[in-house]
Design goal:
α9 links the parallel β4 and β5. The protein is 45% helix and 11% strand. It is built from nine helices and six strands; from the N terminus they run βαααααβαβααβαββ. The chain has a six-stranded parallel β-sheet with strand order 3-2-1-4-5-6, with helices on both faces. It is α/β, with parallel strands linked by helices.
Length: 229
């Protein structure tokens, strides 16, 4: 019987892409990126999103550091869109990191679902997000009251899918594998990481990508959880 539900945060509860888009539209104007030859804010956002997802996949697997991710995601985007290296705004990343975590867009139904689940289960976060931004997102989005524990990879010293972070999370929550389940959007970090550790897992798949054969359970909206728990 399930007693503990472990959620990923970014791209699962906190709508990373929507919050990033709002931030980048603001910074597009602040930095007058049109004057650098970037005539479309959306083109900039789309290219950044591709680079950010690619670099985060590497970060999950320990192939790059936090510093490399932060140095490369915008620099690569500017260069790929034709901005000369000497014209790349070096404070752009810092401003993005300050503003983006203050955005509060959650996936549809998040508060309703968390309110419902909290009455029946202990809820926890396991995040590969950076500590300072994760804590800001949790506080400003009003998420802290729903969760008993917030486990952040920077505190543990390893990222999902490393089994050590799942082991640490269960120990902190005084939970057993057979009474726990993981919910997240990353096939590699959340789903295969949890399953490799021996946890049940639910793939949050709002983009409705084709379900891999090794994924037993998926949802396309958080509100589907109301019918399963």
């Amino acid at each position: 019987m399930i007693k503990h539900i472990f959620f990923d945060l970014d791209h699962t509860i906190w709508d990373f892409d929507r919050n990033a888009q709002e931030t980048l539209i603001e910074l597009y104007e602040v930095y007058a990126l049109k004057s650098l030859g970037l005539h479309s804010a959306q083109e900039f956002i789309d290219r950044y999103t591709e680079n950010n997802h690619r670099l985060w996949a590497k970060y999950h697997l320990g192939e790059i550091t936090k510093e490399t991710l932060r140095e490369e995601r915008f620099r690569s985007t500017f260069l790929e869109l034709g901005v000369k290296p000497e014209h790349v705004p070096h404070q752009f990343e810092d401003d993005y990191v300050k503003i983006s975590p203050t955005k509060t867009n959650l996936f549809a139904g998040a508060e309703k679902v968390l309110t419902y689940l909290q009455k029946k289960y202990q809820l926890h976060i396991i995040s590969n997000g950076f500590k300072e931004t994760t804590l800001t997102k949790m506080e400003l989005s009003g998420l802290n009251p729903y969760f008993t524990h917030v486990i952040i990879s920077e505190d543990v010293g390893v990222n999902k899918p490393n089994r050590i972070i799942f082991e640490h999370a269960l120990a902190k929550a005084s939970a057993q594998k057979e009474e726990s389940i993981m919910i997240g959007d990353s096939l590699e970090a959340d789903i295969r990481g949890a399953q490799g550790f021996g946890l049940k897992a639910i793939f949050f798949n709002p983009l409705n990508i084709e379900k891999p054969a090794d994924v037993e359970w998926q949802i396309s909206s958080l509100e589907e959880l109301l019918h399963h728990f």
